[in-house]
């Protein structure tokens, strides 16, 4: 990155949400900015729900020097806290923010928080970078600025996803080049909230109305450069199976409008991989600058976690590595399937899908490691017993994913395609079998490998954009899984996937070092921090 001039210490606040992928992404971006100057300081702001996760992830950055660590602090909001400056009838614009964010932001702005919130820096923030699920942040900041009479602090909206997915959240666009305003032809989310309200008015319970709203899409075929054609309902393929909270309906649809409150918009887009999407999305944003900073690979943490380098493991981690070592000794290198659906995703309403998955891997005689980290995990004990008795599989609640993906026994990664997991797969040059659930996962799923379509839920008989129909039968699902395993175990096809993934990693890395992603980071530094 460019060398920026700082006559005095500069402070960034980075406000994360609770998801692991969001925490990892925001922390890595913050540390990348931190490395640009030795007078830069970063506060990671989080809720009580995510506090332990943030500290745990920060501890994984073992390469950080003591000097750099002194320039990072983690502060936690308190739900009952209230700004001292506001009148009694003031209502905090919380949206999805945890209540209490305004109080800690007030203390940071006024540099009076040493005793109240633990602020060690006592430097008014120069910018605030906030996760898309903390979308009320700029409204809170502007309300505080008006009351306190202080200068404006720019707020940058972070969506840790490719730019292309954000076009799917753009219900309207305003194009300076064509001087037109209207409905985006790439939108896949408009109307969900209205349908939810209509179904509720018809007497449906919340959960049923939610599912019906998401599945009763317009059957619009969305075609965009660089992506395969997809019908609108394919952008949320596991809504029926996952049983998401009904409140997510308005939250997801609002993402397409929340950017209007931001001073800047950060994505993990790599311009070299999606030039059209970045150009079009800048038109959508209008005067709000877009900063596609690229996927944050975290190479230092990655190198520290390599099994050839790591010397310290917990007892549970040791069991995982011992299993992989054993499979490598018995089956050879690149013989094991690694399966993880992340910390949230799980087909709660279709438990048979997990049964089909495990039975299919056993039938194919492919050793597997299955991390069931989702807080919604429901796994039949008979299935666990069957796996344990076979000696070819291991099911555990959590694994050191970076280390597992770099283990020479692992051949491919079956993933829900969360942002963190896919970035780690790219870093490992690991082909994927994609089982996306919702949102950005359907775009991340386009990485080298194979995508499962027959597991899509509540879509029986519906056409796929790439051709064919979703059958949703046991026979169709197991047939497709067997074909996916066959593709991954075929040396010629597998090496093709590896080569493609290696090239994506090269492009992402080059962009971060001296390409468009670095230019985007430099623009942030120049505009807000120099």
UniProtKB/TrEMBL annotation:
Q: Which Pfam families match?
A: UDPGT (PF00201)
Tell me the superkingdom of the source.
Eukaryota
Task: Name the Gene Ontology molecular function terms of this record.
Answer: UDP-glucosyltransferase activity
Q: Which UniProt keywords apply?
A: Transferase
For this entry, the protein name equals UDP-glycosyltransferases domain-containing protein
């Amino acid at each position: 990155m460019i060398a920026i001039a700082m006559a005095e210490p500069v402070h960034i606040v980075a406000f994360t949400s609770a998801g692991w992928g969001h925490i990892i992404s925001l922390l890595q971006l913050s540390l990348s900015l931190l490395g640009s100057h030795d007078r830069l300081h970063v506060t990671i702001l989080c809720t009580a729900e995510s506090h332990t996760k943030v500290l745990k992830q920060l501890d994984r950055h073992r390469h950080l020097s003591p000097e750099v660590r002194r320039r990072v602090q983690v502060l936690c909001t308190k739900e009952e806290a209230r700004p001292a400056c506001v009148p009694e009838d003031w209502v905090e614009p919380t949206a999805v923010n945890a209540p209490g964010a305004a109080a800690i932001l007030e203390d940071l702005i006024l540099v009076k928080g040493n005793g109240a919130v633990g602020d060690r820096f006592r430097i008014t923030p120069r910018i605030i970078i906030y996760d898309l699920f903390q979308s009320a942040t700029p409204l809170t900041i502007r309300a505080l600025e008006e009351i306190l009479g202080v200068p404006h602090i720019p707020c940058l909206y972070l969506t840790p996803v490719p730019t292309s997915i954000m076009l799917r959240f753009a219900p309207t666009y305003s194009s300076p080049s064509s001087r037109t305003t209207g409905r985006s032809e790439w939108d896949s989310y408009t109307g969900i909230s209205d349908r939810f309200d209509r179904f509720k008015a018809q007497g449906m319970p919340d959960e049923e109305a939610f599912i019906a709203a998401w599945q009763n899409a317009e059957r619009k075929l969305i075609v965009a450069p660089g992506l395969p054609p997809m019908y609108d309902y394919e952008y949320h393929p596991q809504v029926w199976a996952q049983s998401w909270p009904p409140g997510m309906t308005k939250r997801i649809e609002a993402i397409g409008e929340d950017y209007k409150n931001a001073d800047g918009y950060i994505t993990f887009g790599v311009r070299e991989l999606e030039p059209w999407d970045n150009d079009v999305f800048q038109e959508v944003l209008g005067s709000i600058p877009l900063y596609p900073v690229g996927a944050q690979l975290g190479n230092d943490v990655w190198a520290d976690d390599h099994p050839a380098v790591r010397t310290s493991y917990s007892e549970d981690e040791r069991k995982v590595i011992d299993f992989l070592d054993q499979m490598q000794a018995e089956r050879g290198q690149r013989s094991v399937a690694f399966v993880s659906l992340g910390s949230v995703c799980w087909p709660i309403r279709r438990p048979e899908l997990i049964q089909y998955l495990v039975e299919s891997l056993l039938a194919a005689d492919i050793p597997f490691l299955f991390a069931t980290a989702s807080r919604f995990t429901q796994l039949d004990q008979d299935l666990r017993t069957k796996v344990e008795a076979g000696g070819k599989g291991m099911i555990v609640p959590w694994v050191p994913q970076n280390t597992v993906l770099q283990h020479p026994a692992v051949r491919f990664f079956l993933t829900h395609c969360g942002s963190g997991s896919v970035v780690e797969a790219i870093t490992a040059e690991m082909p994927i079998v994609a089982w996306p659930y919702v949102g950005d996962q359907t775009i991340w799923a386009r990485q080298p490998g194979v995508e499962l379509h027959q597991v899509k839920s509540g879509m029986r008989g519906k056409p796929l954009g790439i051709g064919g129909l979703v059958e949703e039968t046991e026979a169709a699902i197991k047939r497709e899984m067997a074909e996916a395993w066959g593709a991954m175990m075929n040396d010629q096809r597998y090496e093709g996937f590896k080569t493609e993934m290696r090239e994506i990693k090269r492009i992402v890395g080059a962009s971060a070092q001296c390409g468009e992603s670095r230019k985007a980071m430099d623009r942030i530094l120049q505009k807000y921090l120099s």
